[in-house]
Write a structure and sequence with these properties.
With 238 residues, this protein is an alpha/beta fold. It has two domains: 51 residues, Vcp-like ATPase, Chain A, domain 2, CATH 3.10.330; 179 residues, Rossmann fold (3-Layer(aba) Sandwich), CATH 3.40.50.
C-alpha cells in the first residue's frame, strides 16, 4: 500500500487507478512511483508518495470498541522495561490496536478477548497487519491465564481487579502489570485489590496531548487537545 500526501491531506492507494478531487493517476504510474517521489495527476496536481509503514497500515484497520491511543501506548512502552525478548499478555483485545503496537517491540503477544465478535474483528486486523507474533484467544482472563513467566500484562477491562489473582501467578517476579481504566472509581478498586495481593504500586498516570499547527512561520496550538482518555495504573509483581 502507498500513501499520497497533498496539501496536508492523506490518501491511501493499493491497486487500480487513483482517483481524487485533484485528478487521476494511472495504476501504471502508481506502481512505478518510488518512496519519497512526487507524482502528478492528469490535472497537474502534485502528490508526494510514500510506501506505507506500520502506523499507516494501522490507520486502515477495522474499528469496533474504543481503542487505546498512541499517547497512552507510549507511556506503557516507556515505563515497563519490555524489549525484543519479552513475552507479554494483553487482555481486552477489542480491535487489536494495543496488541499490534506491542507486537512491534516484543517477541510474542498473547491477547485475550471474551467477546466473539471483537475476537473475530481483531483476528481480521492482525491478519491485515501481517503480525505473526500475536496469538489471539477467545477466552476470559478473569477465569484463567494459560501462560506463565510473562514480562508484562496489560488489562483494558471493565473490572481489571478480577484478573489480578491470575495475573500474579502468570507474571515473572519484578515484572509489570498495567491497568487502563477510564474512571477513577475503577482505579480505587484496582489499587485496593493490588495492595491486598502484595503488588508494588508504582504510579497512576494520565497523559494529555496537545498538538500544534505548523504553517510556515505561523505556529500555534490546536484549539482541541487530546485530553483524558484513561488512567494508567502501573504495578509490579513482588
Amino acid at each position: 500500500m502507498k500513501i499520497l500526501l497533498h496539501e496536508g491531506k492523506e490518501f491511501f492507494w493499493k491497486q487500480g487507478d487513483f482517483h481524487s478531487q485533484y485528478g487521476v493517476i494511472k495504476e501504471s504510474k502508481m506502481k512505478k512511483a518510488k518512496n519519497g517521489t512526487i507524482i502528478k495527476t492528469h490535472l497537474n496536481r502534485k502528490f508526494l508518495v510514500f510506501e506505507a509503514n506500520f502506523i499507516d497500515e494501522l490507520k486502515r484497520i477495522k474499528r469496533g470498541p474504543a481503542i487505546i491511543l498512541p499517547k497512552d501506548v507510549g507511556l506503557i512502552l516507556a515505563s515497563t522495561s519490555i524489549n525484543k525478548n519479552s513475552i507479554v499478555l494483553d487482555a481486552g483485545t477489542g480491535s487489536g490496536v494495543l496488541a499490534s503496537y506491542l507486537a512491534q517491540f516484543v517477541k510474542k503477544v498473547y491477547s485475550y478477548e471474551i467477546r466473539k465478535d471483537f475476537y473475530n474483528l481483531a483476528k481480521d486486523n492482525i491478519e491485515f497487519l501481517n503480525l505473526n507474533n500475536v496469538v489471539l484467544k477467545n477466552k476470559d482472563v478473569y477465569k484463567k491465564i494459560d501462560e506463565n513467566n510473562l514480562d508484562l500484562i496489560v488489562l483494558d477491562l471493565l473490572e481489571p481487579w478480577k484478573a489480578l489473582d491470575n495475573a500474579k501467578r502468570a507474571l515473572k517476579k519484578n515484572s509489570y502489570l498495567v491497568a487502563y481504566s477510564p474512571n477513577i472509581t475503577q482505579v480505587q478498586e484496582f489499587i485496593k485489590k493490588a495492595q491486598e495481593l502484595n503488588f508494588n504500586i508504582v504510579k497512576v498516570s494520565e497523559v494529555i496531548e496537545r498538538e500544534w499547527h505548523v504553517e510556515q512561520l505561523r505556529l500555534r496550538p490546536k484549539s482541541q487537545l487530546i485530553g483524558h482518555t484513561g488512567f494508567l495504573c502501573f504495578i509490579r509483581n513482588l
